[in-house]
Amino acid sequence: MKRVLLVDDSLTVARQLQKIIEGSGDFVSVGHARNGAEAIKMNHSENPEIICMDMNMPGMDGLTALRSLMVIDKDVKVVMVTSLGGVGDKYTEAIKLGAKCVISKPFEAENVLKILREL
Amino acid sequence: MMAVKFFGQFLIENGIVTRENLLQAMELQERKNLKLGEMTLQLGYVSQVDITRAHNAQLSKDMRLGDLLVEMGMLSQEQLSDVITRQKNSHLFIGEALVLVNAMTSGQLQKQLEAFKADQSDFVSDVVELPVKVANNEIWQMAVDLTFKLITRILNIQFRSGKAHVVNVIPANFMIAAMDFSGDVEGCYMLSVNEKLQKTIAKAILREESVEDEPSEVLEDTVMEFVNIVCGNIAAKASQMGKIMEISPPTTIIPAENGIPVVEGHVVLCFPIHVGDYGKMELLIQIPN
Question: What dotted CATH number matches B125-288?
């Protein structure tokens, strides 16, 4: 099973994503970080294969964390899960920085799983 | 469930182009789409020294480069208009860039643009009247309309919108989830709900039959998450309309019994949303005057 780290300041989103990924049988959640700085720490301690990360978070935001993660860990695959996915500039910045995909909110469970399985 | 999307995102999601194709097309866009400074320089309107001086001045002044060049007397208003028109006319769009890097054909582009239009047709704005005229009127009209659409689609709530009005005091309620907008369009977006509606929203967002055992922190968070989704989609739609709207993380406000007086220099627009037996929620938008 692939190890997934969830990064979102919202408990609700973390819960939604955990339910989706663990219900699939293909993935296991290794933890929940509440901002970018926590994500970097937990990437080191939990060594996930995939990170699902929000963009808009207090403290260190998702794009700043993505920039650092891509330097620190070349193997980790980051998928942004955000309500800002449809903002062209944000979408393109995330892809340029190295995100594998940007999932817009509201999302469907099947769509999230399809994307994670294709990584 | 659909969201307001960017065309490149739509193409990737539908398997028309790859992430690598998009990256190539974006590189091409960056080379071809000259920035305002680059174009004024290329047209010989200003020198590199002028640009450097204006960039330095920008560090202490919150102004766009073009306006600053005009203010500093380095560029005339006519020249600035000319540059902006040229920028618009020569702009290479992402779809055209994808054709140029051979990721798709012109025929495919036309077909996909139509498919994209159909995909996004649910988000075409209906006109919502604002009680007073405000700065960026059309953006706020879109924001209200999109809120109504997403209440129906995400929360699956049937409602009737009441008469919009200006308020001097933000009315008391069980909770308000708020989000600040900055950038081209400034304001604070607030959704005020009673206890019953908070639970209705929580059920829809968590996709649970019952939320009776959920802690208040989780219930509040679900309303904030709904506001986050709506505001992100508003920002996406605004970017299609040429306006940049940055959002901050959502917050919860518990209003005092007498409500919250409106801060001086601001106007608050109130849009009542009547939900049958569940009572009323209100969309409130605070905009600087």
Answer: 3.40.1550.10
- DSSP collapsed to 3 states, B36-82: HHHHHHHCCCCCHHHHHHHHHHHCCCCCCHHHHHHHCCCCCHHHHHH
Which residue of chain A is at minimal alpha-carbon distance from B217?
Answer: A11
Q: Is residue B266 predicted with pLDDT exceeding 60?
A: yes
Give residues 192 to 211 of B whose Cβ lies within 8 Å of A: 205-207
Q: Is the pLDDT confidence value at A34 over 60?
A: yes
DSSP state of B123: G
Q: With contact defined as beta carbons under 8 Å apart, do A99 and A66 qualify?
A: yes
Cβ-nearest to B1 among A11, A100, A106: A106
Residue-range domain boundaries for chain B:
7-121, 125-288
Check pLDDT > 80 for residue B278: no
Query: Least CB-CB distance to B3: which of A88, A101, A106?
Result: A106
pLDDT at B1: 56
Instruction: Say how far apart CA B77 and CA B67 lie, in whole Å.
Output: 8
Q: Which of A10, A82, A84 sits opposite B221 (nearest CB)?
A: A10
User: Looking at residue B107, what DSSP letter applies?
Assistant: H
How deeply is A73 buried, as exposed, middle or buried, from its count of CB atoms within 10 A (0-12, 13-18, 19+)?
Answer: middle
Q: How confident is the model over A73-105, as pLDDT tens digits?
A: 999 999 999 999 899 889 999 999 999 999 999
Is A95 in CB contact (< 8 Å) with chain B? yes
pTM of the full predicted structure?
A: 0.87
User: Which chain A residue has its CA at the smallest distance from B229's CA?
Assistant: A83
Query: Tokens 């990170």 sit at which residue?
Result: A51
Distances (CA, A) of A49 to A29, B20, B130: 10, 21, 49
User: Which residue ranges form the domains of chain A, and what is each CATH number?
Assistant: 2-118 (3.40.50.2300)
Half-sphere exposure (Cβ direction) of B270: Cα atoms closer than 13 Å: 19
The CA distance from A108 to the nearest CA of chain B, in Å, is 6
pLDDT (tens digit, 9 = 90+) per residue, B226-256?
999 999 999 999 999 999 999 999 999 999 9
Highest mean pLDDT among B33-42, B102-111, B131-140: B102-111
Asked if residues A46 and A7 have their Cβ atoms less than 8 Å apart, the reply is no
